[in-house]
């Protein structure tokens, strides 16, 4: 696996501010109920994010109750609540987070001309004062106050500098720069962060944060560029969910910082092995599915489909994989067999299934595999197993039924005599009792083989009509970790049952290499 570069002594910490429960919940259709919010918050604490933005308490009594419960119950991260620059919002937000061990209030107000003129319809100098007053008011309750000039990337530079300087003087401890509409491009955004550091007095006393939306698909790139230029808190969401096209994806930022440590001498305190689980939990509870090609957590992120890639991976994982799935607590590389898969990948899957085929057998199975893969887009391990069992008939079954007799009746104990012929032509016979004649016959077969096979399912169907109908029995049986199906037909249902059992038994023996 691509080596994770050891963290240099001078590496600086990047604080991870997770807004899945606030901006993430603004994703159309992603409503979480009270219990679900608490469950997500608990998982975020296991992931060890630095800050959980738990919600926007003034928006509804239910939201406030959930933020309150998270503040009481979830330990570890800072618990933050969002508020507009009005006292009612700040009061509600404080009520919701005041019982957290480490509370934070996050106030925001539009800072671009378009927001000030058309949405807020107020003079910029009045709005600047409003922001300052809100910070001062929030500071009365909470020492940790974050300020966000909304739509900062479309704001006038001089206004932004003046505003930020003023809110820092008023007591803000974190200054967050939102790219509210996902308008920025990396170089420009990096320069903006650098400009703030060089021109705003007091900025070195606060944590500089960014909050990037993904309208142009640049949220992660912008966040990384901001880090390079001095941002030390990244606001991001699990699976990149959020308003419109979403926010920067937490897992992508975290893994990029880790894998490309040579470019990014920074670290996070995230518990990486919880990433996959958190991603799945958020997807399940928000009912927002993860695109299969999504970086880091998508179903296909560690799957290899092309024959050339599969061959490379089998020779050395690093040929086509830069991230080890285990890093994020995910599953190891999957080979998804398709018509493009080569013999090497098919053979590897066959070996995993317990088959060791010679060259001739492999060629035969490979031909059948290609035909099947042409019809079916993906060939699963079970399909491959069925192909082998159906087509490697050149191997004689280990046991055939030679003779059977069963006794049953209302006054007798069901019993069976079974004689089987082995592939070396020798015969072996056993007698057993059971709860019925079929059970007795199966017990006799188990005595012969010495294997304790368990019967998981039994089904009988008539395949022809009339009194002499041909009965077909299907059984599902398991031995050790393997489950297999057997099938047998006869006009005598007990004989059909014995044949089905023997059919399954012979497959199991083949799979387990007892040939
Ligand atoms: O996108 C945005 O501007 C926000 C703020 C509330 C930080 O979500
Ligand atoms: Zn946002």
Describe this entry's structure for a reader:
- With 515 residues, the chain is an alpha/beta fold.
- The protein folds into three domains: 12-286, Alpha-Beta Barrel (TIM Barrel); 303-380, no CATH class; 399-511, Double Stranded RNA Binding Domain.
- Helix content is 39%, strand content 20%.
- It has helices spanning 34-47, 61-73, 87-97, 113-120, 124-141, 157-169, 186-199, 219-228, 250-259, 275-286, 307-315, 343-352, 359-375, 381-391, 437-449, 493-511, and strands at residues 12-13, 15-18, 51-55, 78-84, 103-110, 145-150, 174-179, 207-212, 233-236, 266-267, 303-304, 334-335, 399-407, 415-422, 427-433, 454-462, 471-479, 482-490.
- The protein has an eight-stranded parallel β-barrel with strand order 2-3-4-5-6-7-8-9, surrounded by seven helices.
- Helix 11 (307-315) links the parallel strand 11 (303-304) and strand 12.
- The mean pLDDT is 91.
- The protein binds 3-methyl-2-oxobutanoic acid and zinc ion (ZN).
């Amino acid at each position: 696996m691509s080596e994770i570069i050891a963290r240099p002594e001078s590496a600086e910490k990047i604080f991870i501010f997770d807004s899945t429960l606030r901006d993430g919940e603004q994703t159309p259709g992603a409503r979480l109920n009270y219990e679900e919010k608490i469950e997500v918050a608990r998982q975020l604490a296991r992931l060890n994010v630095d800050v959980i933005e738990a919600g926007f308490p003034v928006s509804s009594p239910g939201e406030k109750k959930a933020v309150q419960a998270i503040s009481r119950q979830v330990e570890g991260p800072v618990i933050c609540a969002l508020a507009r620059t009005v006292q009612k919002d700040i009061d509600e937000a404080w009520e919701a987070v005041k019982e957290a061990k480490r509370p934070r209030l996050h106030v925001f107000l539009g800072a671009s001309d378009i927001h000030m003129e058309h949405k807020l319809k107020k003079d910029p100098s009045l709005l600047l004062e409003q922001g300052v007053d809100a910070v001062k008011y929030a500071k009365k309750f909470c020492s940790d106050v974050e300020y966000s000039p909304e739509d900062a990337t479309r704001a006038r530079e001089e206004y932004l500098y003046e505003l930020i300087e003023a809110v820092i003087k008023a007591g803000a401890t974190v200054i967050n720069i939102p790219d509210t509409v996902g308008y920025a491009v990396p170089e420009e955004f990096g320069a903006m962060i650098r400009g703030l550091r060089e021109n705003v007095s007091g900025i070195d006393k606060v944590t500089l944060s960014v909050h990037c939306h993904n309208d142009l698909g640049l949220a992660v790139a912008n966040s990384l560029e901001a880090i390079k230029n001095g941002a030390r808190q990244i606001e991001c969401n699990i699976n990149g969910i959020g308003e419109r096209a979403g926010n920067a994806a937490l897992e992508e930022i975290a893994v990029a910082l880790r894998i490309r440590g040579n470019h990014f001498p920074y670290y996070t305190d995230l518990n990486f092995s919880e990433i996959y689980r958190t991603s799945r939990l958020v997807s399940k509870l928000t009912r927002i599915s993860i695109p299969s090609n999504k970086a880091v957590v998508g179903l296909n992120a560690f799957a290899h489909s092309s024959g050339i890639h599969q061959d490379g991976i089998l020779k050395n994982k690093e040929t086509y994989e830069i991230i080890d799935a285990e890093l994020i607590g995910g599953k190891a590389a999957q080979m998804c067999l398709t018509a493009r898969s080569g013999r090497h990948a098919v053979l590897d899957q066959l070996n995993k299934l317990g088959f060791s085929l010679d060259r001739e057998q492999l060629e035969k199975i490979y031909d059948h595999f290609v035909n099947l893969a042409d019809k079916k887009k993906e060939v699963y391990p079970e399909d491959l197993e069925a192909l082998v069992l159906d087509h490697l008939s050149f191997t004689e079954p280990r046991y055939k039924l030679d003779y059977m007799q069963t006794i049953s009746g209302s006054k007798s104990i069901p019993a069976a005599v079974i004689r089987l012929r082995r592939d070396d032509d020798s015969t072996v016979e056993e007698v057993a009792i059971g709860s019925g004649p079929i059970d007795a016959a199966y017990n006799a077969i188990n005595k012969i083989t010495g294997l304790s096979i368990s019967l998981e399912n039994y089904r009988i169907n008539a395949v022809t009509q009339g009194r002499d109908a041909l009965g077909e029995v299907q059984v599902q049986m398991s031995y050790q970790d393997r489950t297999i199906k057997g099938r047998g037909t006869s006009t005598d249902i007990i004989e059909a049952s014995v044949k089905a059992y023997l059919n399954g038994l012979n497959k199991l023996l083949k799979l387990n290499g007892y040939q």
